[in-house]
Design goal:
The protein has two helices and seven strands. The protein is mainly beta. The protein has a single domain, classed as Immunoglobulin-like (Sandwich), CATH 2.60.40. The protein has a four-stranded antiparallel β-sheet with strand order 1-2-7-6, with no helix packed on it. A three-stranded antiparallel β-sheet has the order 3-4-5.
């Protein structure tokens, strides 16, 4: 049996502060706070790929939705409350509900080739760096004649 213990009690002046912390942690809080609490992310670049991992344990993969508008990637998912007939909840700390997270992507990423996969509760999004943004080496050619710009003549101005 699990027992929830509140060291301050509901009559304590600290009780409302702890309820506010619960809200920020995603238990009835704002959408933004719930998104960050319910969808933590790691992101990095490796080679020519930008990769982001989102923790979404217990989420039905069919509820995950990714969309791109301009340079904004929006990820939405839903974690449903388990429907247990006759259950009397003793503790309910795991967040449930709808979650949304947005990332503003750099223009150097090729969002047309974005790939996403979901495995063991982790959503992985991979976006290749656009060809035009990849580093490239430019060869400098040697000529025997100096370059000139046609139509530009430098004239001395007399006062």
């Amino acid at each position: 049996m699990l027992t929830a213990y509140d060291p301050f009690g509901s009559a304590s002046p600290f009780a409302s502060a702890f309820r506010a912390l619960d809200q920020l942690a995603g238990r009835g809080g704002t959408t933004t706070a719930r998104a960050l609490a319910g969808m933590p992310m790691d992101a990095y670049r490796v080679g020519d790929q930008f990769v982001a991992h989102f923790d979404l344990p217990g989420v039905d993969p069919g509820s995950i939705d990714l969309s791109i508008e301009g340079t904004t990637l929006t990820i939405s998912a839903e974690r449903s409350v388990p429907q247990l007939e006759g259950a009397e909840w003793a503790v309910a700390e795991r967040p449930f509900g709808s979650y949304t997270r947005q990332l503003v992507l750099g223009r150097s990423l090729d969002t047309e080739r974005l790939e996403a996969s979901y495995h063991d509760g982790v959503l992985t999004v991979s976006i290749p760096v656009a060809e035009k943004a990849k580093a490239r080496k430019i060869t400098v050619s040697r000529t025997d004649t100096p370059s000139t710009i046609e139509g530009s003549q430098h004239q001395a101005v007399e006062n």
